[in-house]
Amino acid sequence: MIEYTLVRSNRKTLAIHITGAATVEVRAPMKLAKVEIDCFVASKREWIEGHLELRGQRLASRAAFALQYGDKLPLRGGEYPITARDGNRVGFDGERFYMPPDLPPEEIKRAAVQIYKMAAKGILTEKVIERAKEMDVMPSAVKVNSARTRWGSCSGKRSLNFSWRLIMADDEVVDYVVVHELAHIREMNHSARFWEVVESVLLDWKRRRARLRGLQTRLAEEDWN
């Protein structure tokens, strides 16, 4: 019997979720008999075990994630090495991520995040300005945050927010997220009309969105927190 945590609510259907800690959570209607829930879980045993194994592998990869000098990091579709440079400055010079020498792995990661954040503000602001002119919309602000589950968002006040992690993707994928959020200035939903706005700018938005999932998979196995 698979062990699981039972969460009851005023829902009508059963659902199984594999949590971030690689445990099983079953969400069920308030009055559904426990024996029926157990039978449902048993019928999904193969699916559950497969997803638990995958989640366990990702957790192990995240726990082992560490950066060293010489490792390569993604930026706008390229892969660039981490190098040591005398002094206290960190940055990206177009060919490499540079930072002070003799940093331990955790400090290397912290420096890399700092570089990403600095680069993201300029890159994303530039892309927003370019696409906003094309789409004839005007955001009130462009901000960079550390969101882990959302690549971007648009507030009711037309302020755009992007995760710094987005610039790990190539420019085509970045453009898709930028256009997606700008489209929300016209349509604050994901209706058919919203996707028409996106498609009027990017005919291949579905292909770009699919490629974004590749970065999501990579980051699921890397600990950038």
How much of the sequence is in beta strands?
15-25%
Total number of domains: 2
The portion of residues assigned to helices is 40-55%
The H/E string reads EEEHHEEEEHEEEHHH
Task: Give the overall pLDDT as a whole number.
Answer: 93
What spatial form do the alpha-carbon principal axes imply?
Answer: flat
Protein model, in words:
- With 225 residues, the chain is an alpha/beta fold.
- The chain has 2 domains: 5-64, no CATH class; 72-220, Metalloproteases ("zincins"), catalytic domain (Zincin-like, 2-Layer Sandwich).
- The chain has helices spanning 34-43, 45-64, 105-135, 171-186, 192-201, 205-220; strands at 5-9, 15-18, 24-29, 72-75, 78-84, 91-92, 97-99, 141-145, 152-154, 159-163.
- Strand 9 (152-154) and strand 10 form a beta hairpin.
- It starts with a strand and ends in a 5-residue tail after the last helix.
- The model has no long low-confidence stretch (mean pLDDT 93).
Question: How would the blueprint of this fold be written?
Answer:
Elements: E1 5-9, E2 15-18, E3 24-29, H1 34-43, H2 45-64, E4 72-75, E5 78-84, E6 91-92, E7 97-99, H3 105-135, E8 141-145, E9 152-154, E10 159-163, H4 171-186, H5 192-201, H6 205-220
Parallel strand pairs: 1-3, 5-7, 8-10
Antiparallel strand pairs: 2-3, 4-5, 6-7, 9-10
Helix pairs in contact: 3-4, 4-5, 4-6
Question: Can you summarize this structure?
Answer:
The protein is α/β, with parallel strands linked by helices and 225 residues long. It has helices spanning 34-43, 45-64, 105-135, 171-186, 192-201, 205-220; strands at 5-9, 15-18, 24-29, 72-75, 78-84, 91-92, 97-99, 141-145, 152-154, 159-163.
